[in-house]
Amino acid sequence: MLTVREFSRFLKWTLVGALGLSVRTGVLALARELLGAHYLLATSAAVEAAILHNFCWHQCWTWRDRPVHHRAVAVRLLRFHASTALLAMGWNLVLMRLLVEGIGLHYLLANLLCAPLVGLLNFFIAEFLIFVRPACPSGVAQRPAFFRT
User: Fold this and answer.
1) Are the C-beta atoms of 54 and 21 separated by less than 8 Å?
2) CA 114: distance to chain centroid?
3) pLDDT of residue 145
4) Which residues are paired to 141 by β-bridges?
5) Which residue among 67, 79, 105, 110 has its CA within the 20 to 30 Å range from the CA of 94?
6) C-alpha–C-alpha distance, residues 77 and 64, integer Å
7) Is 134 helix (H, G, I), strand (E, B) or coil?
């Protein structure tokens, strides 16, 4: 059962994800329609824009109760980017190709279907590996015990 705080955080995650999806869709449409980029290249640019957008919102709003020292924000960004990029970029490119070329969906509709498919997994990675509480006042993050090596 989720606590009120966990449910609130998940709602924030969802709202940021929805905003990120609008950024992603806008960048995808611009790259494809105005620049004439191939839809997979445009998808890559769009996912990257959404990853950076979402990190900023998550850092400042979704997980604002888990502040870190300014130096640790860069490490957090790298972790978020690496985990999200691997999941989001990889799965989105595979799913976009399947939906566009395999099924024949329009690339913008395929984009809208791809985003929520990896969102839930990204939430749990962010909750337990990226936006962890600092272990001490220095701002060095400490992962939950079951993730420590």
Assistant:
1) no
2) 12
3) 46
4) 134
5) 79
6) 14
7) strand
pLDDT at position 136, please? Answer: 56
Dihedrals phi, psi of 141, to nearest 5 degrees? -75, 145
Amino acid letter for position 100: V
70 or 112, which is more confident: 112
Instruction: Identify the burial level of 129 via C-beta atoms within 10 angstroms of its C-beta, where 0-12 means exposed, 13-18 middle and 19 or more buried.
Output: middle
Q: What is the 3-state secondary structure (H, E, C) of 6-44?
A: HHHHHHHHHHHHHHHHHHHHHHHHHHHHHCCCCHHHHHH
Rounded to whole angstroms, what are the CA distances from 83 to 8, 26, 30, 43, 139?
Answer: 23, 23, 26, 17, 21
Question: Is-above-0.70 flag for pTM?
Answer: yes
- pLDDT tens track for 25-63: 999 999 999 999 999 999 999 999 999 999 999 999 998
- DSSP summary character for residue 118: H
Place of tokens 């940021």: 16
